[in-house]
Amino acid sequence: MFHRIRHSLTAFAVAATLFAGSAQAVDITGAGSTFVQPIITKWSASYADKSGSHINYGGGGSGAGIAQIKAATIDFGASDKPLSPEELSAAGLGQFPIVIGGVVPVVNIEGIKAGDVKLTGAQLGDIYLGKIKKWNDPALAANNPGVKLPDVAIQAVYRSDGSGTTFNYTNYLSKVSTEWKEKIGEGTTVQWPVGVGGKGNAGVAAYVQQINGSVGYVELAYALQNKMAYTQLQNSAGKFITPNLASFAAAASHADWKSAKDFQLVITNAPGDDSWPITATAFALVYKTPKDAARSKAVVDFFKYAYTEGGKQAEALDYVPLPAALVQQIEAYWKAEVKL
Amino acid sequence: MAASAESLAIAKTDEQRARRDGFADRTFRRIVASAGIFVLITLAGVALTTLWGGREAFATFGFKFLVSSEWDTVGKQFGALAPVYGTLVTAAIALLIAVPISFGIALYLTEIAPNWLRTPVGSAIELLAGIPSIIYGMWGLFVFVPIMGRYVIPWLNDHVGNWPIIGALFRGPPLGLGMLTAGIVLAIMVIPFISSVMREVFLTVPTRLKESAYALGSTTWEVAWDIVLPYTRTAVIGGVFLGLGRALGETMAVTFVLGNVHRLSLSLLEPGNSIAATIANEFAEADSEIFRSSLIALAFLLFVVTFIVLAIAKLMLRQMEKREGKA
Q: Do B284 and A61 touch (CB under 8 A)?
């Protein structure tokens, strides 16, 4: 009996090796940001078909990703918030962006369709501070001529769970509202002065769809899939911008990556006439001097594949591939920093 | 001689048998004892690890951790009052609704329902107990919350909100989310637990007791209240505790409909927070040591809260028994 099991196991192992094809196929594990989990999962499926290497990405949240890569229990971590060069060098880690996405304010006001309402960053901050209480507030009317905003109380909705979406959103509000920066600040969760919290993008989307007069923030994919009324938002150049892949891409390419050491840059409120102001990215974390060079090389190879061939898949999931100049910069960074 | 050899052999096998029995008995006793001790070890383990994990929060904030409702993850100031309050209030609402309904269900099934209906309804209750809490949460969010927001809460605002004193509990925005909604969803979740325990123990009441009461002219209600309930009281309260434990610790369903807000508010229609929901929401991204420690300290508090509630109930039960003994 045991003999039989052992035989079949051996046979299975041999078959698995044969199927895996290339001898260099290395299975690697990653964990962290749930913001990039859908796209990493998709990339890893097609990468496995091509190279035979499997990428097991566990999600679990940025905090978990950082903790696990520091404990060296995984091959790469992913964080929504970039680590500082000091923290990176203390842990012997390198860091580079993975893909571009965006956070989108969504509203539920009777008769208002996607793109109808225009908001400035300061107004969004005042809404979440509880200072703008009704949709017919004169401040909102000033930049919404011709839009009928009703006499309805505004109900702010936020993420109750810690998330990179909230980090990027509050980071943006801190950049555009000094009051927000002083009273609330930025983080994966913050002490919201008003509003209710929904669990996950799906929870926020559900709350916004059910509460009349509500405003929330979700990733673009959720706004589009649920056909929610997203707003236009004023960017740092003073232009009102519609959230879409083009305006995300503009923000990513206008962002000042060149002077960001270890790519430590949150690209919210990026410069540029056509940049979406709450554009976001997540960062991969790898060891600069890996214990097992083969595994780190597999990580780098995977991201190389993702940058060069994963663009279509990213767009299908409402992400934007990194701009070409940034990919070149990352490849130079690998060459200079990561010993393979 | 032959006879004595035979009796010797019998004596020997008897002795062997006795020894074997003694061994089996001791082994059985040890196994059962270790099962009992396992519960104690688990309990102590949970209490000590959560206390150890939360030591930093307790040391940093001290008593303020219990009385402050501030939960500032950026400024790193944490207080447990809002989630503790939300946990107690939602569990209390749940029991207020669930206990009478469960009593009704159990009474109907044991005293009133026709025989052919008893088994299917009994099985239905047990099936309800097996539904995962996420299903209740999603039902709550997508079906129940809109009903609350559109019809129930506006009605409560208009008709109950202007009453003196308790009116303050029923004034609030028509979100549909909040402590009342969470309490009602919890009630629906704990009814199967409480009512199936009640049904089981109501069945243990001796028929002759009930028949004697009927013979003396009691109504069904009098039999239930004066015979069935006193006879089964300890077990019924045990069933209520089972439901209470589930209500205090429920996570997923509550997180969907409670609104997850770290603010204290008197109104039951305002969103709130509970201990289990806070931990589930925030643990994954708790990015500082003190934040994580505060969440584990919350877990310890849930433990303490449950313990205190159970202790108070046990005390009340004993008082009740004492009074009866005197009378």
A: yes
